[in-house]
């Protein structure tokens, strides 16, 4: 199930409603193109939040996809207010394959075509080998790996139509070194590298 809390502002200078600050103008050539929306999974905290902020700061429309509905909506509202960009908070559990298409539809309706995906949602559950179950294995693989594939499929037509479009998927040093404490996370991040 997904829900969308959307804020739309008219586009202005440099693709946003506000002047670019001196701190963000150096990022603009890399992050501001193409001038399409970007989906950021795990966008309500950590690396995802920092990514969404950097994209909004250079005028990109952003969709904050997160399992935490309240935080996703609040962040989208805040980014829209501060940077004058269209932003949508989309509540979605990426472990639920059926939720991704619905979230993709509501995202397109809210911010238009998608030219970028940043898949930063993830967990690193400390289980050790003895704590791995079918349920937590599937949940971890579905969140990190299957969701990446389904995101690419859900937005493939948008990305094909967008010169310069990209998918960025976060991995970890654990993908190559592994860790007995977080075997699901390590395996999933290794699979992310193989998929992209």
What would your notes on this structure say?
With 196 residues, this protein is of the alpha/beta class. It is built from nine helices and six strands, in the order E-H-H-E-H-E-H-E-H-E-H-H-E-H-H. The protein has helices at 22-25, 28-31, 46-57, 69-83, 97-111, 134-154, 156-160, 174-177, 183-195; strands at residues 3-7, 37-41, 62-66, 87-91, 114-119, 166-169. It has a six-stranded mixed sheet with strand order 1-4-3-2-5-6, sandwiched between helices. 42% of the residues are buried. Mean pLDDT is 87; it is low at 1-22.
In brief, what are we looking at here?
The chain is an alpha/beta fold and 196 residues long. It has a 6-stranded mixed sheet with strand order 1-4-3-2-5-6, with helices on both faces.
Topology overview:
Blueprint: E1 3-7, H1 22-25, H2 28-31, E2 37-41, H3 46-57, E3 62-66, H4 69-83, E4 87-91, H5 97-111, E5 114-119, H6 134-154, H7 156-160, E6 166-169, H8 174-177, H9 183-195
Parallel strand pairs: 2-3, 2-5, 3-4, 5-6
Antiparallel strand pairs: 1-4
Helix pairs in contact: 3-4, 5-6, 6-9
């Amino acid at each position: 199930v997904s829900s969308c809390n959307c804020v739309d502002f008219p586009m202005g200078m440099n693709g946003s409603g506000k002047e670019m600050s001196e701190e963000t103008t150096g990022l603009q050539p890399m992050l501001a193109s193409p001038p399409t929306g970007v989906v950021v999974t795990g966008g309500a905290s950590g690396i995802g939040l920092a990514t969404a902020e950097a994209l909004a700061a250079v005028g990109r429309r952003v969709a904050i996809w997160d399992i935490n509905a309240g935080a996703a909506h609040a962040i989208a509202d805040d980014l829209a207010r501060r940077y004058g960009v269209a932003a949508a908070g989309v509540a979605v559990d990426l472990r639920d394959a059926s939720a991704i298409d619905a979230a993709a539809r509501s995202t397109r309706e809210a911010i238009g075509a998608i030219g970028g995906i940043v898949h930063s949602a993830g967990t690193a559950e400390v289980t050790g080998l003895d704590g791995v179950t079918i349920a937590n294995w599937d949940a971890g693989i579905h969140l990190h790996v299957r969701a990446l594939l389904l995101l690419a499929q859900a937005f493939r037509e948008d990305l094909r139509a967008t010169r310069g479009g990209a998918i960025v998927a976060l991995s970890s040093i654990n993908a190559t070194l592994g860790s007995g404490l977080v075997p699901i996370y390590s395996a999933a991040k290794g699979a992310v590298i193989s998929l992209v």
